[in-house]
Amino acid sequence: MHGQKGAVVGLLVFALTRAAAGEDGDRPLLLAASVAKVRVELSTRVVVTQEVNLSRGSWRGEDQEVFVAFGAPGVPRAIDVHLVPVAKGHLEAPRGERGVPLSWTYERRRPANASPLLGRSTMAGIAVRLPADVLTRALAPGDMAALRIRAVQPAVVAGGSQDLLVRLGDGPTGPLVLGRLEVVSDKELSAMPEARFCGQETSELLAIRVEPASNAERPAAAAVVTPRRAGADLCLRLPTLPKR
Predict the structure, then answer these.
(1) Residue 62's closest CA among 137, 136, 139, 148?
(2) 100-119 pLDDT, tens per residue?
(3) Nearest-angstrom CA–CA distance, 142 and 112
(4) Comparing C-alpha atoms, which of 195, 182, 188 is closest to residue 43?
(5) In what order do the strands lie in the sheet with 178-185?
(6) Residue from 135, 168, 112, 119 nearest 59 by CA
(7) Strand partners, 78
């Protein structure tokens, strides 16, 4: 995977030195945001992709920095982040388009100069830099760009299942809209994956697009129309992959 890899522990220790007074201060995101898609790829590893659509909002050409908190089971083994233009009239960036790689740093909590995007400010995560010139070029085709964050987690343990927690976000007017969910496997799944909004009292099963398609699909609600309270995240239960 292209991107920043390496000694995660060393980077996290380095990040502790960046904590400063005033980190709890609000720094509103000038760009308008929504979560277009969460995609999970199952193979010898688990790759979680969060794709956040960014449109101009009240942005007027400034450099931006956003904070993305880690989910569970913990710090990813590897991360890369790209900014991909979204064509005019489209709701998502093309999956095969790589876009522009963005630099980021590990942080033990949201730094004062970063706007909250996904997860809470008191959590560990990454701060992603969005230079003004890169944003300008990405927004030019259709006034919207996708921030594509890919994280590698350990593979599903044989003989069991794996729970993933994916951070979602809240905007100035309420929870960010989640467009759709995908789970893709290179083998037929032993059972259907499950997804719910977690961190709230009740939540029905959410619809997931599964590849290869399964005959075990159950009634589920589209994420985009399912109520989600502020602060709630996305919880997925992934089945074991068949032995190779």
Answers:
(1) 136
(2) 999 999 999 999 999 999 99
(3) 31
(4) 188
(5) 100-101, 78-86, 144-153, 46-55, 32-42, 178-185, 209-211
(6) 135
(7) 152
Mean pLDDT to the nearest integer, 163-175 = 92
DSSP string, 89-104: T-SS--TT---EE--E
Beta-bridged to residue 46, according to DSSP, are 42, 153
**83 within 8 A of 134, measured Cβ to Cβ:** yes
Starting at the earlier edge strand, list the strands of the sheet with 162-166. 162-166, 233-238, 194-198
* Stretch (H or E) spanning 136: helix 132-139
- Rounded CA-CA distance 120/169 in Å is 8
Which residue's entry shows tokens 């006034």? 143
Across the beta sheet with 64-69, what order do the strands follow?
Answer: 104-107, 125-130, 64-69, 115-118
Q: What is the pLDDT of residues 120-162, one digit of tens each?
A: 999 999 999 999 999 999 999 999 999 999 999 877 666 667 8
Cα gap 36→88, rounded to integer Å = 15
- DSSP-derived 3-state class of residue 107: strand
Among residues 237, 32, 23, 17, the alpha carbon closest in space to that of 117 is found at 32
Rounded Cα distance between 114 and 67, Å, is 6
Report pTM. Answer: 0.84
